[in-house]
Specification:
There is one protein chain. By secondary structure, the protein is mostly beta strands. It has two domains: about 80 residues, Pectate Lyase C-like (3 Solenoid), CATH 2.160.20.80; about 110 residues, Pectate Lyase C-like, CATH 2.160.20.80. Helices cover about 5% and strands about 30% of the residues. The strands form two sheets. Strands 1, 2, 3, 5, 6, 8, 10, 12, 13, 14, 15 and 16 form a twelve-stranded parallel β-sheet that branches. Strands 4-7-9-11 form a four-stranded parallel β-sheet, with no helix packed on it. The protein is elongated, with a radius of gyration of 19 Å.
Amino acid sequence: MAVRAGRGGRWRAPVKPRPPSSLELATEDHDLENEATFRRLGFFDLDLSGRSADGVEFEQCRFKGSDLSGTQLDGAAFTDCLFESTNLANLRAEKSSMIRARLSTLRMTGVHWINGALRDVTISECRLDLSSFRFTDFSSVVFEGCNLTRADFQNADLSGVRFTNCDLTGAQFSQATMEGTRFANCVLVGIGGVTSMGGAVVAHQDLVALSYTLAGALGIRIEDAEEE
């Protein structure tokens, strides 16, 4: 494994979401149903928890103060969407996509985004502990100021991701693609799959904690100079 402190894959900042010219407020009549399409709607303070739907599409929508916890989506698509102060805890989305989106101050504990895709997405100040992004492809995605303790990125393509000021304690990266993945001012204690981090770019201040994890994965014993 090569962990470089220099330049890795070329980085491209996420493209910002394209806001609608006007926004209509969603009501309880805008419930999640199979193959439903929602365009230019504001989902403000609505309870959409515990739902199950396939093929739902959201375009130029905004979510604020709403609850989608425990909802299950299959083949969902979010394009040009904004999420703020919304509850996505234990949301399960499979084969779903998110393109040009911004998520801020969300509760996303236990969210499962499996075998999906995120492109041009910024996720900031979100609680993502125990989340799972297995087999998901990331392109131009930023995690900033997020709690990602024990998050699972197994088999994910993270080559287009930047982690900044994130807590990744105990996160799992086994068999992930990480050429050009960038870490800055992150907690990297006890991460799993550290040998999959070939090509990652790590800030020098983060390297000390990572080196202990790497040594443990390789069976290297670290001892004080005074020890015999």
